[in-house]
Structure prediction request, 1057 residues.
Amino acid sequence: MSHVFLPPDLDRLWNILEENPGALLYAGGTDLLVRLRQNPLKPPSLVCLERIEELHGVRERGEEVFIGACATHTGLLADAIIRDNFPVLVKGLACLGSPPIRNMGTIGGNICTASPAGDALPPLYTLDAGLEIRSRNSSRRMALTDFILGPGKTSLQQGEILAGVWLNRHPPFAIHHFEKVGQRNALAISLVSLAALLTVSAPGIIERVRLAWGSVAPTVATSAAVEAMLTGRPLSRETMDSAIPLIGDAISPISDTRATARYRRTVAGNLLLRLIEVDRRCK
Amino acid sequence: MKNAKNGILEIGKATPRADARGKVTGAEKYAADYYGDQLLWAGVKRAGIPHARIKGMELEGARNHPGVLAVLTCRDVRGSNRQGVIRQDQPVLVDDKVRHCGDAVALVVAEDRPALAKALDLIAVEYEPLPGVFDMETALKPGAVLVHEDNAEGNVLLKGELKTGRGEAALTECDVEVTAFFEVPRQEHAYLETEGGVALLREDGTLEIVVSTQTPFRDRAEVAKALGLDLEKIRILAPYCGGAFGGKDGITVQTLLGLAALHCPGRPIKMQWRREESFLAGVKRHHGRLHYRLGAKADGTLHALDAEIYYDTGPYDHLGGAVLALGLEHAGGPYRIPHTRLRGWSVYTNNPLGGAFRGFGVPQVAAAMEQMMDMAAARLGVSPLEMRLKNAVRRGDKNPVGVTLTSSTGVHECLALLAGQELWQERETWKAAARSFRLRGVGLACVMHGMGYGPLVPDCGNAKIEITEQGVFRIFSGVVDMGQGNAATYLQIAGSILNQDGDHLELVQPDTGKALPSGSASASRTTYTFGNALIGAALALKERIVRRAAALVENSGGGEDFTMAPGALVHRPTGQLIPLPQVARILDEAERISVFTFQAPVAAERPTADQNLQLHGIPHRIFSYGAHLACVEIDELTGKVEVKHYCAVSDCGSIINPQIVEQQIQGGIAQGLGYALSEDFIVENGRMATPDLSAYIIPTAMDIPDLGTFAVELPEETGPFGLKGAGEISMDGPLPALANAVADACGVRLFRYPLTAERVLQALAEKRGEGTGP
Prediction:
């Protein structure tokens, strides 16, 4: 017999997790409930986190911002702190799923699902997101890049939950860019995506840059080599053309019915060229 | 169903459709909303293997599972165990062999859904796998694996050839000739309401089935034959469909539900396919391969066309022959081409089942022909618009299969209206304004669509209208409304003739126990055929009512002095009002009902002596026409095609309700844009690779631009209030209009569809002679 638990607070949650070791955690359920549909004969017990107040909301703490894991995408899109500080995240969330999915889905869910196509993830990688992991007796911080191990795989242990996301409040970048390539304009799974944070000096020199690609590797892909190549050089077609070949080392896309690996590889590079246009539009 | 109070229903007045309120508030019941007391659930064990013999089935586990009432196989079917409209070659439950993954091998009835799911899981089938035939070229080779060993034509369900003038030989007389090969994908209907219904075998032996169907009367005959029942003992009720688009033109769950009910009498049994099952077992638009050669004279006059058309119909004749025939008839588009040879093959394979889908074989050929027009125009150095204006048919011309167009023919009017649009006039300015890394293009397509069943199958409507004792006019609709709005239009027709408002009109959804047989909701015929019948029935009833009312008024001066008003008759000379209930009460029960039969006229000429092609619908007499214009922007970095503007001009005759026609045209365009851009039902070795709506990509509201729709409103003399069919025509235009626009933008043409970003990016790279990068 399977159960659905709706604990109202963390104390109750810890008890439930101890008593139901095989239970699956969720908040919006936009990924999990679809997956469960595939095997209706053996439904597992479920624990829904959405009623736990502590896991909601956006709070400023000094130079940091805490985002509760159960904050919905729609809630974050409307939040002034998020809008003011993290446009790259707003741009990623704005093209995630559809309005009903954004109403239900949460940032914690997008992280724990650990899909390389999760649209919140490339922005969070560029923002150097830290995660707060809690269990009954402990609370620890770890980098998002260490938390996600592979498709659907995280370092979350039995009895632990993702409580929230920590971001530095003033990311030192003037340009926040996110682009998603999907098979349609909404309700699409990313074929390739690129989050980019840039600061370009008055003469057009790239001073600082962070890049993260979605859907082109088992986890979100970053490339220190590309970032190093771009830093200190003019934001131009020539610079981008010289950086594009370096992306190949950072990514390992797959082929499926949506697109071939070759396409994903090509577009992962081409999306860098958009940054030239984005910078022009910012001026 | 009561209509919202909105005054007298008049012809030509844009009126919110009568079914809108009930549907958006959830009050209207679809088949999926029917349950019943002590409901049982039925489900199907699907083969999951494309071609195999069944060596054995282990059923005991399922039979013994708690809550299971019946586990049935072909042995439990007493009738022919075959279904199909023309060739009955599809088993209700597999007997000799499995022919595609979606075949039904066993049927389970259980008390609830968990027990049903468990029992289906407990059924073990032992298969002897057979080599499959998964592409049409292989299927047509001598010695190919046969899908039906008893078919005299091997893997050919239907082949046909139509020839006019000197046929393909005339290509040598042309100054320019263009040749191309096109490949169009399978398309999934993806209706909101999946296939489903509820059946009940009553104590008196009547089998009642409420089902989401386009064809209640034909279903009754098919269920009777397949299950060995008396037709009179079967009653089919057809509520509004939550979408159908051709996918419910024939049997889906009806025979299975009937079989289940026979084994569990007295209790209602429900079956509702999951989305995945609908994808697996439901029919698809035919995958097509089309070889075209088109020749023209130096002055731009089309001279000869040679077309070879292959449609993959999957393992059964789910109207696959008729789909091919309509494709053949439309292969040359709405043009004068004196010499044609049009050949087609509908091919059996072990792929998913091909079948009826809005457009019915025409979107495939329109995709090819309309691009041939642009290619020929480019070779001749004339604009795509000039090329079409020069060759488009006029009334009295012969169409590409040699049949004289004797009915309204408005393709020139459509093109003229389109040519005046700002989108066309200012296209070069618009294209030049593209941002960096963007390419813009504009494309045209001209389409035609035949209406009705063709020359041999009688296309009849039998309308029935009653004045109730309460003085309300009740229409017994004989043709299903699957969303296209014909039911609301019937109310408008009757309301206009009888001068009634929505409060004095009712519509009873098709019910074989109450309505009269009036054919299928298909072939762009629903309002034309039944509407004509309804006019006759309503006029006769009106005359009867007025005549009898005259007897109620002293010195009335006869029927001419009466006018009908909502709920009443008015004696004009005296102003005396006679309430309709008063008139109704003096009518005998039989007199309160009026019926009228209309049979659609057919073409006088026969372009082929092939009786089988005639049976499959060639030729048609009445065609609707359209001209479409698409403005696209391509992202050079990703290959993505964005439709920025779209406009369609249609000749569907006169219009009864502009709102409903606009909805039909817009809906067809949206479905056509999906077909053009993203919808691709991918099959690998007979198995679907796009098994659900996360992998099969239908467009969303974010993918469809505002759609400009215009009508030329040439009256069709034989149509009810001058109308012609509007249900399918707009589906035919988007793929070629977009493909032509993409070719205009990129300077390179794509021959495989949909026009995915990857294909476009690849084409751009090949054009530059490189593998990557813009």
Summary: Chain A has a mean pLDDT of 96. Residues 193 and 214 of chain A are 5 Å apart (CA to CA).
